[in-house]
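Researcher: Re-running this chain for the archive, since the previous output was lost when a drive failed. Same request as before.
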Amino acid sequence: MQLGLTVGDDIDRIDRYGREFDFVEVGIGEGQHVLESSPEALETARSEAGCELTVHLPFKQDLVTPVAEINDAIVEFLSRLLEVAGRAGATAAVLHLTARNPSDTTLRSLAVNQLEQVAGAGDGHGVEVVAENVGHQARGFPISVVTDLCEQASVPVCVDLGHAFMEDGMDGVERILDSARGRIRYVHVHDVRSRGDTHLPLGAGQIDFEAVANRGAELDGHVAIEVFADDEHLLTDSAKRTRRHFGIS
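Model: Regenerated structure tokens:
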């Protein structure tokens, strides 16, 4: 497993923290224009820091709607971002698994088709697309659906532990780890509180990471610390805890 850090669209954070991690995850699209405007600068920053690069596709962009023309435009938009991500040297891209109305079961087959097309575009540019659970959000597919859609589309899963906890507590965390077993290629790690606080340093919230630690040997790929803080001590402590919980050397 590789340990990384989410840095938003701030290239300076790559220089500041990149040497301490195996990779950095950069946000692109919807106001985060650093990758689109200057992929060469991003690749240079990554190279100088000696780390790999992954990206997070736009946070607010639904994957699927009931309208074919809109779905086509979504695929075109995400494909363009993946092309630029590939030029910047990114190896993976995280995609929120969302729909205009996730309770509409007729959208599920369309979601599979959308996933297949976006993942295919990523493959064409050397970028592995992984689908992230966001079932705690109004437009996110629930845990019970996420892994089924990914299996049908042959797309790896990005398990966000905080999102799973916000959706259904530790039961949600255990359920997605069980249902996605063998397909998990990416993990987002942060702590949360049930009152709504998310992306906290590890140990500041309610997730039982000791329970998660027993599952570390089953996981593969990228583990990204998604803690929204610039305090170096908090990030260092979260990294230390993550390495211990997931058995990352």
